[in-house]
Design a protein that fits this description.
heterodimer; A: mainly alpha; 3 strands; B: 3-stranded antiparallel sheet; 43% strand; globular
Chain lengths: 95, 150
């Protein structure tokens, strides 16, 4: 006999933003949630360690996301300046 | 509750008749967003749960930004198993420059008559205003994956 004991649907995580894209912090949260998940059945001390690890991971990701966005903006600004669009370049620099 | 998270009962039956193929070269699946409390198109309210059998526009959120009726296509991750649990996964989905308030979502088979797969309940209204609305799927493992058969 074939017995399908259970079909389960996991929980999704929804992030939203207003007047623009997601913030660095929101993206860091999404990445951390994807990398590390903590089982509800894990012992308390393991859960605590995992929580601390996730916080550390989030801080590292946040820093590099900030850097990546700044560097990407720098590349765009330089491309705009090179093509004579100095006003647009300045506008983006101030973002 | 108007939107209740569930694996659709019709989907379970259709698994046994080979209706759904989650392989990367299999069927196309989509995710559509829904509102409660008359927040959907033409002030409609979504009623979704285990009894849902197919995609419906009743209660679906209005077109905005990159969100269009029917939602967006999901990128599949090939089904696999860990221990005695089989599971499948999708890549995260984002609707950008969108003004959306949604309470839940429906994953359905766009290849096979829009047949329902599962209902996702966000628990609270999630709102984006001229911004990004991202649905992140859980870690693809035997304990968390979006669709699991144990």
């Amino acid at each position: 006999m074939f017995n399908l004991s259970s079909g389960i649907v996991g929980s999704v995580n929804v992030k939203t933003s207003n007047q623009g894209g997601l913030t660095n912090e929101q993206i860091a949260d999404l990445a951390v949630d994807k990398i590390a998940s903590i089982s509800d059945q894990a012992p308390p001390h393991i859960r605590q360690q995992a929580k601390i690890f996730k916080e550390h991971l989030k801080n590292v990701l946040y820093h590099y996301l900030l850097l990546a966005r700044r560097e990407e903006r720098g590349t765009i600004i330089q491309a705009l300046r090179s093509s004579g669009q100095k006003e647009t370049a300045e506008y983006i620099r101030r973002l | 509750m108007a939107i209740a998270q569930a694996m659709c009962t019709s989907f379970k039956t259709e698994l046994l008749t080979g209706t759904h193929n989650f392989a990367t070269n299999g069927n196309a699946f989509k995710l559509a967003l829904y509102a409660e409390g008359s927040g959907g198109k033409s002030s409609t309210t979504a009623t979704l749960g285990a009894a849902t059998t197919a995609f419906t526009t009743t209660g679906e959120v209005a077109n905005s930004g990159t969100y269009v009726s029917g939602g967006l296509a999901l990128t599949k991750v090939a089904p696999t198993a860990s221990g005695t649990t089989a599971f499948t996964d999708f890549s995260d989905l984002s609707f950008t420059t969108a003004t959306i308030t949604a309470m839940g979502a429906l994953i359905y088979n766009d290849t096979n008559s829009d047949k329902a797969v599962c209902v996702l309940d966000f628990s609270t209204n999630k709102t984006s205003t001229s911004g990004t609305f991202t649905v992140q799927f859980p870690t693809a493992d035997a304990s968390n994956a979006i669709i699991r058969i144990a």
